[in-house]
Amino acid sequence: DGKEFWEKGFFFADSTVFDLFSYSFIRGNPQTALNAPFTVVINQSTAKKYFGDDDPMGKVINAEDFLMLTVTGIIEDPPVNSHFHFDLLVSFSSFGTPPGQNMYGDLYRGNFSNFGLNPVIYTYLLLQKD
């Protein structure tokens, strides 16, 4: 409805992120929430800010006119002492959607520069106990 927000907690992640981090889902399924391209999981505060009392599930967030993101999950706000604190967590598979199926050709080619994105990538490992 014409509202604009600037989010510093905008990250991309693959569908296994919820295997590593145990966020509490309010709505959506952690096993499938980020499986499809152009899907997004948002935290409770972001849901309230963007949608008020409306149900955000299935609604679309327009990110700078280059990503149209469908809300597929809502989690409780991450603890303040968490290293990985996000407002919007976007499916990493958005990068692999070929041009012609969407208007995001630069993302397909891995070109972040046209979008003002900071290509910082965190890598997390889940180690087995000995």
What's the SSE blueprint?
Elements: E1 10-13, H1 17-20, E2 25-28, E3 39-43, H2 44-51, E4 60-63, E5 67-75, E6 88-91, H3 105-108
Parallel strand pairs: 1-6, 3-5
Antiparallel strand pairs: 2-5, 3-6, 4-5
Written account of the structure:
This protein is α/β, with parallel strands linked by helices. The protein has one domain. Helix content is 12%, strand content 23%. The chain is built from three helices and six strands, in the order E-H-E-E-H-E-E-E-H. Strands 1, 2, 3, 4, 5 and 6 form a six-stranded mixed β-sheet that branches. The chain is globular. The N and C termini lie far apart (53 Å).
In a nutshell, what does this entry contain?
With 130 residues, the chain is an alpha/beta fold.
